[in-house]
Amino acid sequence: MALSTPADARDSGIDFLKGVLIVLMIYGHVGHIGTLQDIQLEVRGWIYSFHMPAFLVVSGFFFFDRLKGKAITTPLLRRLIVPYMVFEPLYLLGLLISARIGLPTSNEATSDARSFVMSVFFQPIGAFWFVHALIVIQLSFAVSRAASRKLFEDDRIVWFGAVLLLGGAVQLGIVRQSAPAFFLIGLTISALKQDVKQNTWLSILAIATCLILNHSGLKEFSFLQIAWVLGIIGVFTNLAAILPNMIVHLFAFIGRNTLILLITHAFFVVAMKPLAARFLGLDPTGLLFTLTTVSLACIGGVASSRALDVLRLSSALFGTKRLYAPF
Questions:
Q1: Cα–Cα distance between 154 and 298 in angstroms, integer?
Q2: pTM score
Q3: pLDDT tens digits for 45-83?
Q4: CA distances to 81, 140, 172 from 123, in Å
Q5: For residue 198, how far is the Cα from the chain centroid?
Q6: Element (H or E) spanning 104, and its range?
Q7: Which one of 20, 57, 81, 271 has the largest count of C-beta atoms within 10 Å of its C-beta?
Q8: How many CB atoms lie within 10 A of CB 310?
Q9: All residues at 6 or more sequence positions from 3 whose CB lies less than 8 Å from its CB, including other chains
C-alpha cells in the first residue's frame, strides 16, 4: 500500500486490482438489507474467500524490495503503526458511542478497559485486523534482521527468524495463521523474481479447477484457497488490459488510495446505518443503500486524504507530505 508514488510510475494492473479489492472489502462491511439481503450475504461470503488474502499477497510482493533496503522499522512506524494507533482507538470509541445511542453495528463495542487494550494490541476489531497483521509481520522481519546482522551475514537467517517469530505470534493468537502465510507467498514470488500477475488463461484454469474440486472449501485457509487467490489476482490484473480505460483509471485511482480507505471506511459505513429504513422506502431490494454506502465510503476516504494533506497532518500520521494519490 504505497502512499505517494506517482501514478505514471506505477503498475496500473496492480493498482486496478487493489482498487477492486478495497471496493469489495467495503461492500462486504455494509450492513446489507432488503429483499436481496440473502443474496448479498452470499456474495459477501465469496468475496471474503479472496479479497484480503489477495491484499496480503500483494503486500508481501512489494515488501521484498523494502526488505533488501536499509530501513524497515522507520517506514513501518510512520506508515502503519502511527495511523493504526490513532484510528483503531477512534473506531473502538465510535463503536462504544454507537452502542450507547442504539445504533446497530457489525462489531460489538469493548466493554471495559482490558477489552479495549486487548482489541488495540492483540485482537483488533473490524478491518483494522489487516493493518495489525501487517505490523506484526513486518515487525517480525525487522526484529529478525536486526538480530541476525549482529550474528550472521545471511539473508536466509532473516527469513528463518521472521518465520519463527510469526509462528509464535500465530500460536499466541496475535495474528491469524493465514495472514503471514499469504504475505510470505507474495514475498517468495518477488524473491524468485516472478511476476505476481499470471497468464490470464492459467489463472482462469486455476479458478475453474478450484471450483470443480471443492467450491465450498475455498473460504478456509488451504492449498486450494492459495490457488484460488492467485488465480483471482491473475484474472483481475489482466482485466486492466482489456477493460475500458475510464473503468481501469477509476479503480486504479482508488487502488492508489487504499490505505486511507481501509482506515476510514468504517466511519462512513456506520454513519449510513440510521438512513437504512429511508433507503428501503425508496428501494426495497437494498441495492441502492449498498451502492450509496460504498460510494460514500470511497469518496469520503479520498476526501479525508485531501483534508489531511491540506491540514498538514499527513506527515505526522502517515510519514508522507502527500497522502492523496491523484487520479
A1: 43
A2: 0.90
A3: 899 999 999 999 999 998 887 777 666 777 777 788 899
A4: 15, 17, 11
A5: 21
A6: none
A7: 57
A8: 10
A9: 79, 259, 318, 319, 320, 323, 325
